[in-house]
């Protein structure tokens, strides 16, 4: 058996080696191109963001200066006048939302037979909302007390207290009650047998 290579030029599979080296070189070139494109893209984006941030900071400084100038130009008396006007408007709106029908429906449900309502005066209080002054005529203190208990049981009346009591010429008790009225606390039901 012959162990020597008799050809003038030996064959060493150079094509496969070159093919692999070419594929590796192509992959390296593609990765380099990809990395270069990303670096350029991020560099442009970074430049754009830095420019935008600079513009935003300038605008924020301008707005801050304008706000300081506007605060300096505001007259505190005008603000107080506007606040007073707003309070008055809110009180008018609160008065307009007061429902006399709902109030008298509640009275109809809670009024004992021996008690008569002479007058009702609502007023708007900042701390409590609606405060009612109810003038009633009754035969006795027990009738007025029953009326107060009935009002409290509705949940719509709080802090009910007699403000003034006196007896008229006919021997009837004239009592003035003051109460905080919460119109939204439960809707009145119509009492059976009363119209």
Coarse structural class: alpha+beta
Could you say which overall geometry the principal axes of the C-alpha atoms support? elongated
CATH domain class of the largest domain: Alpha Beta
N-C termini distance: 134 Å
Order of helical and strand elements: HHHEEHEE
Mean pLDDT: 84
List the helices and strands and how they pair.
Layout: H1 14-73, H2 76-96, H3 100-110, E1 115-125, E2 129-138, H4 141-154, E3 157-167, E4 173-181
Antiparallel strand pairs: 1-2, 2-4, 3-4
Helix pairs in contact: 3-4
Task: Produce a short descriptive summary.
The protein has 195 residues and is an alpha+beta fold.
Structure description:
This protein has 195 residues and is an alpha+beta fold. It has 2 domains: 13-74; 99-181, Alpha-Beta Plaits (2-Layer Sandwich). 54% of the residues lie in helices and 21% in strands. It has 4 helices and 4 strands, in the order αααββαββ. It has helices at residues 14-73, 76-96, 100-110, 141-154, and strands at residues 115-125, 129-138, 157-167, 173-181. Strands 1-2-4-3 form a 4-stranded antiparallel beta sheet. Strand 3 (157-167) and strand 4 form a beta hairpin. Mean pLDDT is 84; it is low at 189-195.
